[in-house]
Structure formats: structure tokens, C-alpha cells
Amino acid sequence: MLPLAFRHFRLVPFFYILVSVSALSADAKPDPVVQKILADVSSVRIEERIRKLVSFETRHTLSQTDSDVRGIGAARRWIESELRACSKASGGRLQVSTQEWLEPVSRRVSRPTTLVNIVATLPGDSQSSKDRLLIVSGHYDTINSEVSDSVGAAPGANDDASGTAVSMELACVMAKHHFEATLVFMAVPGEEQGLLGAAHFAREARRLGLNIEAMVTNDIVGSATGDAGQRDPKRLRLFADGFDPLLRMMVQSQTGQAPDPSEQALTQVIRGQMQSIALAGGGADLPTHQLGRHLKTSAERYMPGFMVQLIQRRDRYLRGGDHIPFLEQGYAAVRFTEPFENFRHQHQNVRSEGSMVYGDLPEFVEFEYVADVARVNAAGLATLALAPAPPTNVRIDTTQLTNDSTLRWSISNDPSVVGYRVVWRESDATAWQFSQDLGRVGQTTIPVSKDNVLFGVQALSARGHASLAVYPLPQGR
Question: What is d(CA 147, CA 358) in angstroms, rounded to the nearest whole number?
Fold first, then answer.
């Protein structure tokens, strides 16, 4: 029996449909640039960087900063020096900077503390896409069993030297290549004290009106083995849910809180856009959901046999990561984390109890698995950075009763856009199932009922890279 989408076609255009519409698959040839990036990722370098970060003994956000061998100050200076070395190797194309501020006293910050985000930027080459920012991040701070212990050992090999090493490796490998959009590789502090580094960057980005198209955090990506011995080295969890701005709006409404004046534009524009999508049946098609689909599809295309488990949830229960401040500012943001977790090796004082070893130590990190996590990130980020911006003004015609679906969008003036792709899926499917490729046109009619499937529209580059999909809003009489 034909899939549902095909069963709803009219008989007249059936031959046309068989020719022009296909099930989505990895039938296009992989891009050799993307393949080269994945091949260049080194588990040896990743291991060296994780072990070096562990060697600072603690990277607690409030630990000492005046030592060259211990504490968060030594760690951040080393991260910066490593990225500057990679910048030099790239001919200076990778631009390394720091973002420094004084964090005030709060529940987990006992004294005013200088925090530093380390940011490596690879500017895009395209005039029409270089303002599109694609961010990948890991946090370099650590804690042990006591969140306020800024002196005791807190090696943080998995949480989150693993994610920091991924971000650093991607910066150094991808700096050798050219992209349409701008890539930003970050290492941030203060995650364990309340996502402080990420929150500072996200607030500043919104204040400056930066166009962050995607943000990916890698946090606890160091092991494929769980606390009961369960193991799956070919799986990675991806938490992707974009409802945070709407949830904040609902909470503020229910509690009578007034939105922060600095968030008025965000409240009125971004939240309004998201609400429109959700009310139009696109509750699983917000920008963060589209980013999740892209990352899963790209990884599984370039890494056959590897599965990205897409979970429509902001994070695990009782946990949070550096993607959340970006979600709260209305940006598409997701979190990668390992398939299982061993809580004996997270937020624990280093110790032995009988035969059981506690502590976040490098001997519990699987370095080749971390390298595969880096490759998953690279596949998604590179293909997105090589693609054009998503289409705008995407609409679906709802002016009359019909079993066809007519979609319209604005034709981009970006010369790198050679065409568009309409994608759709059955309502119980996670990923796109079917597609129709078109030239530089702004409208098409698909002989599939809009009542039965979910649509998206993507912009295409000459090399076949597709933008994030955009959910069509209804356009009535």
C-alpha cells in the first residue's frame, strides 16, 4: 500500500507526482567539504584537551583566577590560547575574543565575580548570509558534590570538558573551510551557578538584535555507557522544544507579572510569531523543532548507522543547560547529551566507596564517542552554514475547500538561492517524509490535503543544501 501522502493524490496528475515528488532520503551525493570536516575530527586531540581541562583540578566558577595551573582563571586562559593557535593556523580567519562582565551576588554566587565567555567567530563569506549566526557551545566550569565548594577537586571531565572539547575541536577543524553563514564557537562559565555565561551572551545578542539562527549546546556528551552498564555508542540524545517564550508569557499572565521592559519587543514580535504557528497547528514546528529535525537528518545522512534520538522536551527532568537562556530570548536552541547517564560521575566528590569510584574523571570518558558527537555537530552546522537563509512570508492557501494544498512564499533576492523545496510529513511522523523541489518560484500546488499532513518550505543552494524549514501560516479570505 502507498504511504498516506500518496494515497490522497488525485488520479489525473499521478504520473507527474511520481516524477516530481519523492520520499525524503539521503539520495543526493554528500558534500565532500562536509565529509572532509568529519574526517578531520580527532579523538586524540579531544582526549588531550579533556585531560588538560581536568588537570586544572577545579574549574568552579568562583575558584581562583591568579594561578597558571589551578582554577577557572588558568583554564579559561588556556582555552583562549588554544583557540588563538587555531586562529593562527587558519590565517587569522577564526576571530577569538572574550566577553567579560561582573556577575552580581545571587543564590549560587556568594560575591561579585568576573566571568568570561571565550568566543571564536568564523565569519561567513556571503553578503546575504554572514549576519546569520550559528552557535555551538560547551561550558568550562565545574562543581563537585557541593555547589558552593570553590576549592575542592572538581575535575569535570564529562560535565563539561567533553562539550568544551567538542566546541574547540569544531572551531579548529571548521576554520579551514569557508561557509555562507557565520559560525560561533563558545566556551562559557557559570553554567552550574545558573546558566550565567550563556544567559549573558543571549541577553546581549537580543539587545544588539543579532540574528542567531541556531544555538547548540553540548553538555555531558562523554560516554555511551550508563550506570547499569547499558551501552549504545551509536546514539545521542537531542533535546529540542521551542515553547519557552510562550511558557514565560503564560506564566507572566497567570501570575500577574509585568514583562521586563527590555523584553517588550520580544514579547510582541517573537512570541506573537510563535503563538501564530502553534495556533495554526504547528505546535511541533517552531524554529527549535525545525533545527532539531535538521540536526538529526544531517547527522544520520553523513554518519550511517548513528542515530540522533530527537526528544521534544526542553531538557531532562530536574536539569537544564545553556540552550535555555537562548530559548527564553526567542532563539532556536537545542541540547545534545549522551544516551545514558551515570550519576556517580556527575557532581560528585572524587572518592572510592568499596569497589565503587565516584567523581567526574577522564577514565570514565569514551574519547572516540566524543569525537562522534563532534561529527554529529559538524554535519548539522556545516550543512546549515552552507545553506541560504530560510524563506520568508510562507503561507498556505485556506480560501476555499479543496483537497489540494497551495503554498506561497516570497522569492529571495539572495543570488545563492537557486530554488525551493516543499517538504511534508504525516501528523504522527517526527521527520519530513516527502518533498518536491522547485526552481526560483514563489508558489506551488501539491495534490495532498492540507488537512492531513504538515508542510514546510526550505530554500536551496546550488550545492543542494537546504535551509531550515518554515511552517506555513494559513492565508484565508
Answer: 16
Lowest mean pLDDT among 7-21, 114-128, 393-407: 7-21
Q: List beta partners, residue 445.
A: 406
Distance CA 14, CA 380 (A): 34
Note the pLDDT of residue 276.
Answer: 80
Q: What is the pLDDT of residue 1?
A: 38
Contact yes or no for 231/225 (Cβ under 8 A) = yes
Is the per-residue pLDDT at 265 higher than 60?
no
Q: Which amino acid is at 11?
A: L
> Burial of 92 by CB count in 10 Å (0-12 exposed, 13-18 middle, 19+ buried)?
exposed
417 Cβ contact partners less than 8 Å away, ≥ 6 residues apart: 388, 440, 459, 460, 461
- Going from the N-terminus, what domains does the chain have, and what CATH number goes with each? 4-30+391-475 (2.60.40.10), 32-243+283-385 (3.40.630.10)
- DSSP E strands, 220-311: 235-239, 307-311
Q: Which of 11-20, 196-205, 208-217 has the weakest average pLDDT?
A: 11-20
